[in-house]
Amino acid sequence: MKDEKDFPVTKSDTEWQASLTPTEYAVLRQHGTEPRGSSPLNKEKRSGEFLCAGCGQPLFDAGTKYESGTGWPSFYAPREGSVETTTDRSHSMTRTEVHCSRCGGHLGHVFNDGPKPTGLRYCMNGAALSFKPEE
Ligand SMILES: [Zn+2]
């Protein structure tokens, strides 16, 4: 799948492969999904922020993370303007795909069964995120 949109951060496929781990590359650049429960970020409970593993843009504050029980890091709200969505019709399902607004990296999907105040569940791949604890 080729994304024609221009993002502020763009790299060639070869450059992405060189700068990301194989798991990060599979998720961010090839719309992969990490195995349920595989990310150490599932258990991350400290204050801080979650950044895009591709370009370092802050995406989620730790205060919006919650335990969804799905096995993927889940949040109810992104930082304003940090993510964009597209309609994903792969795997015979219609889902809303979520990607970083800065580099276009695939992060996960958003669903309508989240907690208040937004009612949204941003189901993210931990491999697409890096955690920066509050100092
Ligand atoms: Zn990014």
Written account of the structure:
The protein is mainly beta and 135 residues long. The chain is 10% helix and 30% strand. A 6-stranded antiparallel beta sheet has the order 3-4-8-7-6-5, with no helix packed on it. The longest helix is centred in the N-terminal third of the chain and has 7 residues, at 13-19. The chain is globular. The model has no long low-confidence stretch (mean pLDDT 95). The structure holds zinc ion. Residues 52, 54-55, 57, 100, 102-103, 105 line the site of zinc ion.
Task: Offer a quick outline of the entry.
Helix content is 10%, strand content 30%.
Could you tell me how far the N terminus lies from the C terminus, measured between alpha carbons in angstroms? 39 Å
**Spatial shape:** globular
Rg, Cα atoms, Å: 14 Å
Q: Helical segment tally? A: 2
Strand content: 25-35%
The strand order across the widest sheet is: 3-4-8-7-6-5
Mean of all residue-level pLDDT scores: 95
The largest pleated sheet is described as:
6 strands, antiparallel
Sheet/helix structural class: mainly beta
Features:
mainly beta, 2 helices, 10% helix, globular, binds zinc ion
Please specify the SSE layout and strand pairing.
Layout: H1 13-19, H2 22-28, E1 48-52, E2 58-61, E3 65-66, E4 74-75, E5 83-88, E6 95-100, E7 106-111, E8 121-124, E9 129-133
Antiparallel strand pairs: 1-2, 1-9, 3-4, 4-8, 5-6, 6-7, 7-8
Zinc ion binds next to loops.
